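User:
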Amino acid sequence: MYFLRSISDDIQVAQLQFRNLTKTRMLVLGAFLACLAAVLQAAGGFLPGIGYFISPFATLPILICAMFSLSVGVMSYFLTILLLFILVPSELNVFPFTTGLLGIGIGGAFSFFKKRASIIFVGAILLTTGIISLLYIFRFPVLGPAVSYSFSYLTTGGIFLFALFYNWLWVEIALFFFKRLRGFII
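Assistant: Predicted structure:
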């Protein structure tokens, strides 16, 4: 079955090659990807309308960075948060709990798991946790005014099903871009 097949060993080979890079090159790559993620996430604040379609792509730089090295990916995640604090503070409600957490979760899952299903499941759990935290703990209307702030199993189940599908798309996008960027970065 498609979801139970192992992902190729290209990721582990690229991670070993990435560890052989100098610390300076790793940090510069992480900083560049953090800047790219901050610009993509800030597009929602700078370009109302079309920017909201661009901002979900802020997941990709964090995800690619975390696929190469989880520690550099976490550094990029926090650097992106700091850059958003300077550029567009209103995006600090969304990025750390959804877009950035998704990138760290899927990128880290590529390091620990080999099956698509487990990678998708880990990302879906983290994304669901982030959305639920924003919605029920911080009472931030991340899903708009249609969803109430009182806890609902139906809403939580719907968020988890959406997160499974959304993570499946991001895993496939990540594998596509990883194959193309691997030779360029390393």
